[in-house]
């Protein structure tokens, strides 16, 4: 009798896969304090786009400021594009209606506007370290009103080593 070979059982889940891709994208960020990554996925689990936080094209990472504090014009906040917005803008394929967004940090109010308007319907987020700020409170208010579902990624504890 031929012995049936069964499939592997320790393969990564969809959530591990896409949150892992979002984390990997975040590793491209030059921001010294918060590296954020995002991955947009279709309803049938195909990766559509990725992004991380950084300055717009043409704005040099070496010339524009990375400071968090000080003279407003000399901080990063006026210049940096958030990972979620970059992922949305990086998508050139048409509509994101019904898509899912995996992001390592809960989206701010400005990203929430772009998420809602682009048709993304689900957000899976990693940490929510700015939950008590007006930006995130306003974000949740808009997402709730618009029917965009969001839930926190549950870490599985699986460690993956990739040799590069
Ligand atoms: O949703 C977000 N997505 C995102 O990419 N960011 C970026 C902007 C900044 O580069 C960095 C936040 O910096 P900091 O934690 O030092 O304030 O993260 C920040 C938020 C805020 O929630
Ligand atoms: Zn944002």
Automatic annotation (TrEMBL):
Q: Which cofactors does this gene product need?
A: Zn(2+)
The source's superkingdom equals: Bacteria
Q: Which residues form the active site?
A: 84 (proton donor)
Domain CMP/dCMP-type deaminase as annotated: residue spans: 13-150
Gene3D superfamilies named among the record's database cross-references: Cytidine Deaminase, domain 2
Q: Name one GO molecular function term.
A: dCMP deaminase activity
Q: Provide the Gene Ontology terms for cellular component.
A: cytoplasm
GO BP terms: namely: nucleotide biosynthetic process; pyrimidine nucleotide metabolic process
Which Pfam families does the record cross-reference, listed alphabetically? dCMP_cyt_deam_1 (PF00383)
Which residues make up the binding site for Zn(2+)?
82, 108, 111
Keywords carried by this UniProt record? Hydrolase, Metal-binding, Nucleotide biosynthesis, Zinc
Output the PANTHER family linked to this UniProt entry.
DEOXYCYTIDYLATE DEAMINASE, DEOXYCYTIDYLATE DEAMINASE-RELATED
The entry sums up its family as follows: Belongs to the cytidine and deoxycytidylate deaminase family.
Name of the protein described by the UniProt record: CMP/dCMP-type deaminase domain-containing protein
Question: What is the species of this protein?
Answer: Blautia hydrogenotrophica (strain DSM 10507 / JCM 14656 / S5a33)
């Amino acid at each position: 009798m031929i012995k049936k070979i069964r499939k592997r059982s320790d393969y990564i889940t969809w959530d591990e896969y896409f949150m892992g891709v979002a984390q990997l994208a975040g590793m491209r960020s030059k921001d010294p304090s918060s590296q954020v990554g995002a991955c947009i996925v279709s309803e049938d689990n195909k990766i559509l786009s990725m992004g991380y936080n950084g300055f717009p094209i043409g704005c040099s990472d070496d010339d524009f400021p990375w400071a968090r504090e000080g003279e407003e014009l000399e901080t990063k906040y006026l210049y940096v594009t958030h990972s979620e917005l970059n992922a949305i803008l990086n998508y050139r394929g048409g509509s994101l209606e019904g898509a899912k967004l995996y992001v390592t940090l809960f989206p701010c109010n400005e990203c929430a506007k772009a998420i809602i308007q682009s048709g993304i319907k689900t957000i899976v987020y990693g940490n929510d370290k700015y939950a008590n700020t007006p930006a995130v409170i306003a974000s949740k208010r808009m997402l709730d009103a618009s029917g965009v579902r969001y839930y926190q990624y549950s870490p599985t504890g699986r460690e993956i080593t990739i040799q590069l």
